[in-house]
Write a structure and sequence with these properties.
Blueprint lengths: L14 H22 L4 H12 L9 H6 L1 H17 L3 H6 L1 H24 L4 H11 L4 H10 L5 H33 L2 H33 L3 H21 L4 H14 L13 H16 L7 H24 L8 H10 L6 H13 L4 H28 L8
Helix pairs in contact: 1-2, 1-13, 2-13, 2-17, 4-8, 4-11, 4-12, 4-13, 6-7, 6-14, 7-9, 8-9, 8-17, 9-10, 9-15, 9-16, 10-11, 10-12, 11-12, 14-15, 14-17, 15-17
Length: 400
């Protein structure tokens, strides 16, 4: 009797690598198609994910996305670190009206979103929590498109800076409100105090610790290209891994590391790093996975509420940016491009909302439907509008 032990056994071993290869090739192919028709690559990535994932064929399940978590986290960390490196605190201190604009647009966005949601008869706690999430602008989408198009200039700098400030503020407010969700369901003052304190202080403290280690190792490794690249990737992995393990914010941790590498590094032991093509494969899988998790609801009431929420979000950002344009170097037309560039909405703070929903059912199912539908609309329209803003500002590379 013949033995066929040399034949492969099912399920195949290392199938995660096979899935990653397929998603990478299909996703990049989708990005190439959208780029050829004048739209952002990232839109092609998420659309391929939507076709293969939950909205379409259902091939990229939640289990598959969990198996690809390493690739997703690395792409996420690289983009956040690069964004942090673009935040020049000296420039931000000189541009005082930038801070006024940021505070005004975040406050008005929250107020308008809260008002819209309460008009649709959601509770004040639900409306407050979701309105805080709506403040955010996706740092990952913004950073990817800015890097992909080689954008640089006044409009680009303001979009990148406001996106980072929006996302960090949304995280801070959401984390604070989540403590009141815990309090409402479990009671106890210690929960209210320590949950927010742990999330907020812990995330920024972890970023500081990773930076101090990074700075010390960079001084020892030297300034060569290879050591600096390896060290930067290692610190990104360390920051993401520790933040995940400690249930802290990857966003705040990696942005903190990047900001400190840019602004608390006077002797330039840490060189400015752009991961470039190294990050591309991780980013493709990151955005394909995001598209695979889309949930869109065709219910009329949900669509109406989602449209109202998206409109409130745009007005909340646009009104202060337009209103204060005369006090900035931008002027009215370029200020409008900044407002347009803030359209992509972040999914990071959404994780806090979903965690609260899963644990306490803190949000009405209909409100969660409104939120997820809004995310899908903004993940499609946001990259397109951001690209239009950057091209109209004439701040992209000629061949981008």
């Amino acid at each position: 009797m013949h033995s066929f032990h040399y034949l492969p056994h099912f399920p195949l071993s290392n199938w995660q690598l096979l899935v990653s290869a397929v998603l990478l090739l299909l996703g990049y192919g989708g990005g190439a198609v959208t780029r050829r028709v004048g739209m952002p690559r990232v839109l092609g990535y998420v659309l391929v994910g939507a076709v293969l994932g939950d909205p379409g064929l259902g091939l990229i399940t939640e289990g598959v996305r969990n198996d690809l978590r390493l690739f997703i986290d690395v792409g996420l960390g690289m983009l956040l670190y690069e964004m942090g490196q673009r935040l020049d605190l000296d420039w931000m201190r000189r541009e005082r009206w930038l801070w006024v604009t940021a505070i005004a647009e975040m406050a008005l966005t929250w107020l308008l979103a809260f008002t819209v949601l309460t008009l649709f008869h959601y509770t004040k706690l639900e409306s407050s929590l979701l309105a805080a999430v709506v403040i955010s602008t996706s740092p990952v989408v913004v950073m990817y498109i800015v890097r992909d198009m080689g954008a640089d200039g006044q409009v680009t700098s303001r979009i990148v800076t406001l996106a980072a400030l929006n996302s960090m503020a949304a995280f801070v407010i959401s984390a604070s409100l989540l403590s009141w969700v815990h309090f409402s369901y479990e009671g106890g003052v210690p929960t209210v105090l320590f949950h927010s304190l742990y999330l907020l202080a812990g995330s920024f403290a972890l970023g500081l610790i990773v930076f101090l280690l990074y700075h010390g190792l960079a001084r020892w490794f030297g300034k060569g290209d290879a050591p600096q690249l390896v060290l930067a990737i290692g610190m990104v992995l360390l920051g993401v891994g520790l933040a995940d393990a400690l249930n802290l914010s990857v966003l705040c941790t990696l942005l903190t590391v990047g900001v400190l590498a840019k602004n608390a590094n006077p002797r330039r032991f840490i060189r400015h790093i752009e991961f470039g093509v190294t990050a591309e494969l991780f980013c493709v899988i990151l955005f394909v996975s995001a598209g695979a998790a889309w949930h869109f609801y065709w219910d009329g009431t949900v669509l109406l509420a989602a449209g109202a929420l998206i409109g409130a979000r745009y007005l909340g950002k646009a009104i202060p940016i337009y209103g204060l344009a005369a006090l900035t170097p931008l002027g009215l037309s370029r200020a409008g491009l900044v407002a347009l560039g803030l359209t992509p909405m972040s999914g990071f703070t959404a994780l806090l909302v979903l965690d609260a929903t899963n644990q306490y059912h803190a949000l009405a199912p209909a409100l969660l439907d409104v939120f997820l539908t809004s995310v899908v609309v903004l993940e499609v329209s946001g990259p397109i509008l951001l690209q239009i803003a950057l091209v109209s500002a004439r701040e992209t590379e000629p061949n981008a």
